[in-house]
Write a structure and sequence with these properties.
Mean pLDDT: 84
Distance between the termini: 38 Å
Number of strands: 10
Number of domains: 3
Radius of gyration: 25 Å
Shape: elongated
Largest sheet: 6 strands, antiparallel
CATH class of the largest domain: Alpha Beta
Strand content: 5-15%
């Protein structure tokens, strides 16, 4: 099962670049221009090629060996083992979005990108550490939700040179986790040194293993996460894990507080969309709409782009109900709501009790509502949605259809408008 804790493992596959030119200053303007080029390449389906062209693998390898004493032969062996490694495969994932958050003010100079899984909304961040060489910016290191890739390479080099100050248990635990032997990780934990048990990446390996072995022991998960935060109070991985851990639970205040702590660290407008979803799940549409509006104001790119055109009215109330259920369950594109919603009437209805909705135009309200729906966790797929069809029952009374099914708490109401059926909230 998926776990909210970040998995810190490096799976390099194929790359090879080098640069040895003198370093220059990395300004915010240069970094943001670099980010714009990278995002443009990703949009054009050329993101992996772009990353291969800008990653300085030689610099990354040297960072991995920094502070570890090895022979020339061991160093050469390590370098050969990384020939053809492709860092782009680690950073860009086909199942996740990849968007710029910003250029953090603190050093070292780096760009922060957000990744969101397209189906389960799992959140992670990628940092690209930059240096200017020969008049061009190069990526000399990277981190995934706080875990430096150079640090993971250092572990590999330490293993090659015979430990490099790490215990045998350390390498056993890393190997056990990679082989998905989670019970063995937990059993071997006591054999690590006191220092190793406080290392951030190892603490996450333990937390992940615990989540796999005891998936329903929420108290143990909370304790494991608290241990990471206590040992590493500025851990990006810990704050992301806290948000994911609390997602879907009923404690609205705790979930929002976790989002606030993460937002202070990364300043990400997307987190307002997460806040909106939490408020909506709690039935607070006033705060849900306000959070969505704030997200769009902070970053207009968060609007749904390239929405597929609606295919016309829905003549069968069962199909209308399946669109509604599909959107709520994450199986149907939110743009399909245009087929079953009277946005003007829905906007007017909510505007009576929600001033922030009343202040929005109908078009902005519809767009914000659909954007909010796009952030819902995926609880259904197309096959699961279609399996519900036989259980749906319809009772038509004039121009009103009551649609019921075992999975509904109350019947859904649809009103006949022209040739189609339109959702009616009450």
């Amino acid at each position: 099962m998926p776990t909210p804790f970040p998995t810190l493992s490096l799976a390099l596959v194929t790359i090879g670049l080098s640069a040895t030119a003198a370093h220059g200053e990395v300004t915010k303007a240069k970094a943001l221009a670099f980010a714009k080029e990278l995002e443009g390449a990703i949009a054009a389906k050329k993101g992996h090629a772009k990353l291969r062209a800008v990653v300085d693998m030689t610099a990354l390898r040297e960072r991995g060996k920094r502070g570890v004493k090895g022979t020339k032969e061991q160093s050469a062996t390590f370098d050969r083992s990384l020939q053809g490694a492709d860092l782009s495969q680690v950073l860009l994932r086909t199942d996740s979005s990849f968007h710029l958050v910003g250029f953090p003010k603190d050093s070292p100079p780096r760009l922060l990108f957000r990744r969101v899984h397209r189906r389960n909304l799992a959140l992670s961040y990628v940092e690209l550490f930059l240096e200017e060489k020969g008049g061009e910016l190069r990526v000399v290191d990277a981190a995934i939700t706080g875990a430096r890739l150079s640090g993971q390479l250092r572990r590999q080099y330490q293993a090659l040179v015979g430990g490099g100050g790490m215990s045998k248990a350390f390498f056993r635990v890393v190997d056990q986790f990679r082989e998905r032997k989670f019970k063995e990780v937990l059993a071997d934990w006591k054999n690590l040194t006191a220092k190793e048990r406080t290392m951030e990446d190892l603490m996450f390996l333990r937390a992940n293993s615990l989540a796999q072995v005891e998936p329903y022991d929420h108290a143990a998960h909370e304790a494991a996460l608290k241990a990471v935060i206590d040992a590493h109070p500025k851990s990006l991985g810990a704050f992301v894990a806290e948000v994911e851990l609390r997602a879907g639970r009923d404690d609205v205040a705790a979930t929002l507080a976790a989002i606030d702590r993460l937002d202070k660290l990364v300043g990400d407008p997307y987190l307002d969309m997460r806040r909106s979803l939490v408020h909506q799940e709690a039935g607070d549409m006033t705060r849900a709409v306000a959070s969505m509006k704030r997200a769009l104001e902070r970053d207009p790119r968060l609007r749904i782009e390239d929405e597929p055109a609606a295919t016309g009215p829905v003549s069968d109330p069962v199909d209308a109900a399946l669109i509604y259920i599909g959107v709520m369950g994450g199986a149907t594109d939110p743009s399909q709501l245009d087929r079953i919603m009277d946005w003007k009437a829905f906007h007017a209805e909510l505007g009576v009790t929600t001033p922030s909705v009343k202040a929005m135009s109908v078009a902005d309200f519809a767009r914000a509502f659909k954007a909010n729906m796009s952030q819902r966790p995926k609880r259904l797929d197309a096959a699961g949605l279609e399996k519900l069809r036989p259980s749906i029952r319809v009772k038509v009374e004039g121009d009103l259809a009551l649609v019921s099914a075992p999975v509904f708490r109350v019947p859904l109401r649809f009103r006949k408008v022209g040739q189609g059926w339109v959702f009616q909230s009450k």
